Structures are given as C-alpha cells and as structure tokens.
Amino acid sequence: MTDFFLYLNLETIDLFPKRNFMRYFFTIYLILISLSIRAQVFVGSGGVIANNGTISSFNIPVASLPNDTLKATFGLEWVQLQINHQKLSELAIYLKAPNGLMTQISIYNGGSGTQFLNTIFNNTSTKKLEQASSPFTDTFKSEGSLALFNSRNVLPNGTWQIMIFDAVSNINAGSMVSAALKFSNQPAQLFKYTSSKLPIISINTEGQTIPTDPKIKVSFFAIDNPNGINQLADTQSMTKSKMFIEIRGNSSSGPNSPKKDF
Question: Span 25-50, mean pLDDT?
C-alpha cells in the first residue's frame, strides 16, 4: 500500500509531477530559511549574581545570522530576562555587544520586587517598571536605547553579555536564570524628533570624523524660539556660527563609549 501511494504522487498525478515537486520543495525550503533569518531568538545561560562589589557577566552566544552589521531593517528587537533577587532595585543591568558597545537595560528599578519572569525590554513599550508589580512578566521600555546596536556598525555574531552590578554588597542575594535576545526585521529604531521645548543645538562636522586631537572646524547652530517650541525647520530663530571641536577624556574617547565629552 505504501509503494502504491508513492507511485501515485510522483509518477501518475499530472498536477504534481516530479519536476514540480522538487520546485515546490525548494520554494518552501527557501521560505523557511528566509523566515528563520527574519526572526531568531538566542538564549544564554544563568548563574549567581555577585554581591561583593564586582560585575557579573552572563554570556549569550549568537551565531548563524547574516554576516552584516545590524541596521534599521534587521537588528536587535528585544532583550528578555529571568532573574531572581531579594531586591531588584539594587541591580544595574546592561547589555554588551561582541564589539564592546553597551547600553542600559534597567538601572536600579523594580522597587522591593524579587523577580523578572521572562520580562521583555524593548524600545517601543511605553510601560515602565514602576507602573507594575513583581513578578514582572510584561514588556517594558529599556533604560537605554537598543537602537544603539542597530546604528553603530555592530556585527551580530559572537558573544553578547548581560552585565549586572549589585550596588549593595553582602546583603541580598540573587541569580540570573536565563537571558535571551531577539533579532528580527522589526528592530529597535532610533528616536527621531522634529521639535522640543528645550533649545536645540546641532553640530555639523561636514563629513569629518571628530578626533581626540587636534580640533577640527565645524558648523554650529542653535534654535531658541521665544514662544517656547523649537522646530528643527525653524531657520528664522536659528543662530549660526563656526567652532572647533575634539573628543576629551581618556575613559570616554573609546569607540564603544555611548557618551563622549567634547
């Protein structure tokens, strides 16, 4: 009976001959490959969170993603944490990329809560931890922008790390159960603004890279509208000038520092 069934599907039925079968097979295969590239989740192992004044690092190996830098079209979408700790507000939690670039995930949040339970942090959520109660099981806005990794020439494959610092030594204990990263074609995006109640200051390097030494000459403009709302397109309230600029400070001058002194 089995032989007869195979014979019918591959030889007898004109609607599904062998050549079409192979074509359909490879089409489905390519679709599945495409979907797997569009969204992949990578999970790391856990361990004890040190409370002796040192930083604990937990690895998340990432492999098999396209060997191209993360972008606004494909990149990091969210971070998921499962942490047990006697007081979550003692923890400063960061995400570190394979090239050393870092951003904040949660800095001393959670009050007297004791558990992140598959808690997701992303750029799009408007919910904050102080608006919820432990165990935290929802999706929250990350402290720093995850879009940083999608805009700074970060290659995805390699060892990512969750870095945790317990600010209160030798009192409350805790552990990382697991952590996960999701990469997809709906990654975290940089925030774009067109107006502000605060004065807007912009520096145009005109294609130059700002060095540590010597200073370079750049264009500078400031917008401070008397009505209190400043628009980027408001050239009438714009003050233009030239200035010299360089990066200052040894600790902040490295390529992976999210903030620099100028």
Answer: 70
What lies within 8 Å, CB to CB, of 5 at 6+ separation is none
Instruction: Identify the architecture of domain 39-184 in CATH.
Output: Sandwich (2.60)
Q: 192 or 92: whose pLDDT is higher?
A: 92
Instruction: Calculate the alpha carbon distances from 181 to 5, 126, 159, 160, 209 in Å.
Output: 45, 20, 11, 9, 32
Cα 72 to chain center, whole Å? 11
pTM of the model: 0.68
Tokens read off for 262:
């100028």
CA dist 5 → 2, 11, 13, 19, 21 (Å): 5, 10, 11, 18, 15
Rounded Cα distance, 180 and 46, in Å = 11
Domains of the chain by residue range: 2-38, 39-184, 195-245
Which region among 26-30, 80-84, 191-195, 246-250 has the lowest average model confidence (pLDDT)? 26-30
CB atoms within 10 A of CB 71: 13
What is the distance, to the nearest Å, from the Cα of residue 103 to the centroid of all Cα atoms in its chain?
Answer: 8
Whether pLDDT at 12 is above 70: no
